[in-house]
Amino acid sequence: MERHTIFDWSRKARTGIPEAVFAEGKSLSHLHDVIRDHIDRNASLLITRLTPTQIDGLRDLPLSVDDLGRTATLEAPEPDHDAPVVAIVTAGTSDLSVAREAEVAANFMGLRTELIADVGVAGLWRLEAHLPALTAHRLIIAVAGMEGALFSVLAGLVTAPIIAVPTSVGYGVAKDGSVALGSALGGCAPGVVCVNIDNGFGAAAAAAKILNIAQAL
Amino acid sequence: MERHTIFDWSRKARTGIPEAVFAEGKSLSHLHDVIRDHIDRNASLLITRLTPTQIDGLRDLPLSVDDLGRTATLEAPEPDHDAPVVAIVTAGTSDLSVAREAEVAANFMGLRTELIADVGVAGLWRLEAHLPALTAHRLIIAVAGMEGALFSVLAGLVTAPIIAVPTSVGYGVAKDGSVALGSALGGCAPGVVCVNIDNGFGAAAAAAKILNIAQAL
Amino acid sequence: MERHTIFDWSRKARTGIPEAVFAEGKSLSHLHDVIRDHIDRNASLLITRLTPTQIDGLRDLPLSVDDLGRTATLEAPEPDHDAPVVAIVTAGTSDLSVAREAEVAANFMGLRTELIADVGVAGLWRLEAHLPALTAHRLIIAVAGMEGALFSVLAGLVTAPIIAVPTSVGYGVAKDGSVALGSALGGCAPGVVCVNIDNGFGAAAAAAKILNIAQAL
Amino acid sequence: MERHTIFDWSRKARTGIPEAVFAEGKSLSHLHDVIRDHIDRNASLLITRLTPTQIDGLRDLPLSVDDLGRTATLEAPEPDHDAPVVAIVTAGTSDLSVAREAEVAANFMGLRTELIADVGVAGLWRLEAHLPALTAHRLIIAVAGMEGALFSVLAGLVTAPIIAVPTSVGYGVAKDGSVALGSALGGCAPGVVCVNIDNGFGAAAAAAKILNIAQAL
Amino acid sequence: MERHTIFDWSRKARTGIPEAVFAEGKSLSHLHDVIRDHIDRNASLLITRLTPTQIDGLRDLPLSVDDLGRTATLEAPEPDHDAPVVAIVTAGTSDLSVAREAEVAANFMGLRTELIADVGVAGLWRLEAHLPALTAHRLIIAVAGMEGALFSVLAGLVTAPIIAVPTSVGYGVAKDGSVALGSALGGCAPGVVCVNIDNGFGAAAAAAKILNIAQAL
Amino acid sequence: MERHTIFDWSRKARTGIPEAVFAEGKSLSHLHDVIRDHIDRNASLLITRLTPTQIDGLRDLPLSVDDLGRTATLEAPEPDHDAPVVAIVTAGTSDLSVAREAEVAANFMGLRTELIADVGVAGLWRLEAHLPALTAHRLIIAVAGMEGALFSVLAGLVTAPIIAVPTSVGYGVAKDGSVALGSALGGCAPGVVCVNIDNGFGAAAAAAKILNIAQAL
Amino acid sequence: MERHTIFDWSRKARTGIPEAVFAEGKSLSHLHDVIRDHIDRNASLLITRLTPTQIDGLRDLPLSVDDLGRTATLEAPEPDHDAPVVAIVTAGTSDLSVAREAEVAANFMGLRTELIADVGVAGLWRLEAHLPALTAHRLIIAVAGMEGALFSVLAGLVTAPIIAVPTSVGYGVAKDGSVALGSALGGCAPGVVCVNIDNGFGAAAAAAKILNIAQAL
Amino acid sequence: MERHTIFDWSRKARTGIPEAVFAEGKSLSHLHDVIRDHIDRNASLLITRLTPTQIDGLRDLPLSVDDLGRTATLEAPEPDHDAPVVAIVTAGTSDLSVAREAEVAANFMGLRTELIADVGVAGLWRLEAHLPALTAHRLIIAVAGMEGALFSVLAGLVTAPIIAVPTSVGYGVAKDGSVALGSALGGCAPGVVCVNIDNGFGAAAAAAKILNIAQAL
């Protein structure tokens, strides 16, 4: 008596963002059904938060899988060569998984991306080396766990708005991302907005909506 | 031996946002000094989170005070008649104070604003009555306390990105705004980003940065 | 020296609700003993929160198992064809497990059920499509995780009382169901009452008691 | 530039519950405006969570004020002599304020009420003395702070459904009502549903909706 | 370079309680060394919080293992036939593991015990059936998870002091025992004292100290 | 329509502890009524948690008031000269208020007390100076705020059971007594039991019940 | 029956730090007694966390009061001109009160201090302007509220160890200093240690102990 | 498309501490790459928080592994025989893992160490036995879980500054180290500073910075 998702085929028209499948907690058979349905319709699809076990179980399907970002895409179109660009900045190596989810999702929604990794504030010179590049960007997704100091520091250095993605990287008081989230929300540097912990997809969706504004003018 | 803020006169050039004074916890004499300094320089100034007592203590100064929004401005220029517009939507009457802070701050930064009050989801027909107007906006600041259901509902109805401002309106489990904050971050409707509880100024600053992108293209 | 539950054979007479077995944390041999005892007495029985391993270990017994809802029943009578009906509404696919627990339990207690899945507020049109059906119901169990906006929205649209069941579906700030619980309790739409996170059984028991009132008049 | 609530005159028709005004945090002038508006229309009105200062400031208006319950009503009709009855039970003397809010609100919505005070479980004989009366009721609102043991105990003794209202009565770990709320939600006695801490109005609204079901059959 | 516990051989003389080994997180080799050391000295020993894996790994040693209570003892003397008695009461079947830890530990310290299981308040008649026996006891250890209502109810019925042991039995808001702990501490029935969640050993140690007072008079 | 407490005149017979009045949040007129009722009956009475304002308002009544402990008693009998003794130990000067509540309550229940103040572990020599006296006691109430290290240290030094009373003395992470409570429950020194934060009365009640055991043998 | 602190006259000899009086929650008469006692003995004294009301009440005594830092000293010796120096750095104007407490306390313990205010990371150029001075210091006390990003940034720039003092400056998620505390503890920049929220005195005491090491070599 | 850490070869010159690799959550192939890179350069390296599985996977590399401390080092130089010494004190056997991480890291940074284990305050005589040795030390790292009373007790006994490392050893309220952390921060014994829960490496890094001050004089 299992029921399946009634897929929201008109979502993109209504909200500007194609519906994606959040894989966590879903059964393999459910995922197979959704994917095959899209294959049959020649529709593109984005799946996020796949576990390694789920990725193994979908190996027989024609998906483009990103192990680091735990994503899979079907028939994902390349972003136009003149599409708007969002910069994705990470504080540490361990934040790369969430950053990749944001990158794959942003590409899927038609944005080009530039990923700048490992510029955490504990070594401020690394951030400064990338400042000229960062200053040129019109929108930045910043991905950081632990104490999340990157968000405030970056906001004091660039004029672009920053979408903060706190990650669950950390331990002790910083476990589960709550300190990084607090830093994203509780700082005084203006221009920082925030999405849920580890929500790379949400950051990409917000970026797509923000940059589409710019395009539409 | 009291020390005063070294005012950051070049902030706007560097980050695109003029520095504002957060009045909470500051002494009247400190506020007087900062304001007179700006009067002497013919500089504009925005002050937020003024208590009624502080507002009374500043009555002798040529400030433009908004009691509801607890803000004061000095030499605030009118937004250009063709400046970009941000919609500000509130769930309930009690959220108006934070919404006014956002409105005054947005105007101060050069944006025009349209305030749409009292469209909480408990009376969904009120929201629907404003939907045509909302759909036309390119950016929406949504202000809601209690359970914050407005954020998700709105994000499912419009294509514009939404800056959620949770407010500390509520009691019991919803006291201090934590449930509204959770709803802003924890929903699955894409396109919602969030600022700190009651941070109307921060939402305006993010809006100014986002819409300036659009302008600059 | 293991001890067993002294089963409460007269519970239904006293409180109107048959005792059920909460399987989580119980050993297989304990469950076997309870079930066989009921088989010997030709008694009906409801078991909830079975793990997949426990379900496997009970395959040899004449139980009616619902894998999705993680329930098993023994000699469960069909609800009368004119029994009162409770609607069970879910926000997302991932909430279906808890909704099924509620449905199986409600049926076991003699209620008929109508399950309406996937009407989360991020796609408000899905909810609106079901509104005529929902408006006709006299009691609604609403099952939602993440930000739990469904509870307030629904309460603003229908006159029936709503039993909210927050689910542990979600991540980051919404992990473990705390935000959905906050939304169920902290909203201002009157007519919403709440049970524990993931407590589909409890919602069904309350529904049975409420609708039995109606029957008894 | 103060804005006022657009009163929801059709709310009762739509949801079965008349809109009430939550006074906490509202200015006296705002309350005056809303009340005079209702006087002009000969409309009835319920105001909850009034502070002593607000009550003093409204003395000149023809309101029926309940100091203990912090409520005021305007043109509240008496419940019909054969209207359904809800029992309201409190654990301690300090819970009476919230119980009175529930009672006034229930009366305002057309229910008769029976208030049974001070039957906390620390003196179980007090509860038992009222058991015959309680058993006869079809719906019970239970109001308790501190550890909230009343909810579970009552649910094990009666067949009626119970609407639990945790109160913020308590100190130390029980401060702000969180333990009582936990007990309302976390117990295993079936038939208990819960509203927000101190939300007597919400309990009354749910009771009105539940008992109207029964009436409508 | 592993270091081992310097066993506190004189602890009992100093504090009245023999030192016990808390097995959680300790390696099998470490446990073996400690146990053999006691065997060599003909010393008695109590080990608590053994995992099933640890229990398997110690099968070759002459220990008296209690699987339900997750304890093992070495050379545990029988309590004297006229030793003081502590009653151990549990709310539900799932609380039995912690109750057994308390029982084994109390016996090890020289107390006799009487275990009364499954008298949770959801079925108050079960508690009342045992009341004559309970009233006769001079000290009661009460073990309960979920909402922990047993502590307050019991304290209102008997004159003996009660040592409350909240257990981590429960889910949703009651997960990890925090609600039961809150109920143990936040109730108003005098005579309840509390130990840490799941700390059966600690309850037994306190009981031994309290009853030794009585003995020593 | 205010209702008053139905006083529990037979409580002492039933539970061994006379009922006391917790004054916090109660109106002066309510307190006056309860006190006069006891004066009329020549009954003794204990009132705890009086605010300075309440104490002022009761000056006309023949009460024995303790300002530091915020208690008042009526017709409190002196403990017998050979009554059992409980030691009351405080970590710091700021814990004296709670300690006095415990002392007054213990005296009221018939125990003699010895108060040993200011023996916090930051100056361990102060505790050691009192060790001979403490070792002679059969039961100790330990009162400590901040980090609550006194509980564990004391339990390692004496054989008597210890009733820990965490206090709300402290700031930052230790605000409201949660760290002291955690230390009382989370330590490994056996023989420590705990009551709610600031609950001096509860500690006295438990002491009276425990020492009455001893007396009764 | 009020009791007074037994002052710990030999504390400095034992622990290297003179005992100070924490004024919060202490009565004026108690403070007067302690101060006069020190005047009579020609002893020096430090009092911290004075409220404005307490400061007013002590005006008649020969104290050296710092209103901003809420401290008072008696007979405080000047630090030697070649005493070790600790730098005290604050993120914002609102952190100055806690920084002054640290400065007064450090001076009282014999250290010289250099206060560098308003170098928060939102304007990183302000921090960089002071970097040469900061790099020359051997120990830094960093004082910051809100998101506390200063701690990590500073630790990545200097070789000196940093004592972080989170302050309760902030609102929403950053209220009460919990986010700043999390950032002080949860960052990955090595060399940061932390004291309690708002504990300027504790930071000074640790600095005195650390620099005394250096002196003693 | 996996990216690797850009190793910070100049970190030691800049901040005085060599960069270490935090292994938790990193893939084996990533760790292999980093290690081989260091082997090729004849560079020394410290790796912390290795899981047993990771340790197994690195067996083929010429690392010096400490299973208890979960660390590995490459080409770690021996501390000079006259290098400064830091004492490392643990409360219990279960805290030894974190203490070993601190010891290995301190040695790696050039400090000599003296490890004194199992001196928890529940057996104060054990601590006192080591007091002469402890008093001679100029800096102490104290490692304790559960209620963390060791920090305050030690600070009252010695003049050296103390770096507190709370550990996640404990259960119930003390689970995950939060009570030990609260005790480290919330005590009143001056001279205690704190690092994150389980952060032995951070304590060592702070110790190295502090003692290098002393050396540099």
UniProtKB/TrEMBL annotation, chains A, B, C, D, E, F, G, H:
Residues 84-216 form the PurE domain. SUPFAM superfamilies: N5-CAIR mutase (phosphoribosylaminoimidazole carboxylase, PurE). InterPro entries: P2CMN_synthase_LarB, PurE_dom. One of its GO terms (biological process) is 'de novo' IMP biosynthetic process. Pfam families: AIRC (PF00731). GO terms for molecular function: hydrolase activity. PANTHER family: PHOSPHORIBOSYLAMINOIMIDAZOLE CARBOXYLASE-RELATED, SLL1489 PROTEIN. This is PurE domain-containing protein. It comes from Jannaschia helgolandensis.
